[in-house]
Amino acid sequence: MTFQEYFQQVKDRFAGADVSGVASPTRIQIDITGEAAGTFYVEIKDGKLAVEPYEYHDRDVLLTISDKDFWKIVEKKLDPVVAFTFGKLKAQGDLGKALELKKLIK
Predict the structure, then answer these.
(1) Is the separation of the CB atoms in 47 and 70 below 8 Å?
(2) Are 39 and 76 in contact (CB under 8 A)?
(3) Secondary structure (H, E, C), 9-47
(4) Is it true that the peptide bond before 25 is cis, omega within 30 degrees of 0?
(5) Closest to 21 measured CA to CA, from 97, 98, 103, 94
(6) How far is CA 50 from the centre of its chain?
(7) Parallel, antiparallel, or unpaired for β 26-33 and 89-93?
(8) What pLDDT is stored for residue 106 in this prediction?
(9) What is the CA radius of gyration of the chain?
(10) Cα angle for residues 35, 38, 39 (degrees, 5° grid)
(11) In sequence order, which residues have a C-beta less than 8 Å from that of residue 34 and are 6 or more positions away?
(12) How many whole angstroms separate alpha carbon 72 and alpha carbon 19?
């Protein structure tokens, strides 16, 4: 799977997510490793969600994770805290903002 295909699946999965309980602004860059390697960001600002395939230089937190492990988190088969604890998920920056992403995964 290419990054574009992977990204589109992620974007579709987040479409329509309820961001009312998420701190604003929240800016998270996610670096995906593995077969579908690439970079995208998730931004919650003024009650709106944006998921775009670009780097976000003014981010609150940078997450690095494999394509397979991130998808497991999206599908609720892997808890992000467990992934972080076991080194599958690396985070640099505001870990509180990283946890905001968990609220979007329904």
Answers:
(1) no
(2) no
(3) HHHHHHCCCCCCCCCCCEEEEEEEECCCCEEEEEEEECC
(4) yes
(5) 103
(6) 11
(7) unpaired
(8) 64
(9) 12
(10) 150
(11) 66, 67, 68
(12) 21
Instruction: Encode 59-81: b = buried (16+ Cβ within 10 Å), e = exposed.
Output: bbbbbbbbbebbbbbbeeebebe
pLDDT in tens, 36-89: 999 999 999 999 999 999 999 999 999 999 999 999 999 999 999 999 999 999
3-class DSSP assignment, residue 75: coil
DSSP label of 88: S
pLDDT tens-digit map of 6-30:
999 999 999 888 998 888 899 999 9
Q: Per the structure block, which two tokens stand in for 61?
A: 């937190």
> CA 94, CA 99: separation in Å to the nearest integer?
9
- Three-state secondary structure along 48-66? EEEEECCCCCCCCEEEEEE
What the block records as the tokens of 73 is 């988190």
pTM for the model: 0.91
Task: Tell me the two tokens of residue 68.
Answer: 């397979």
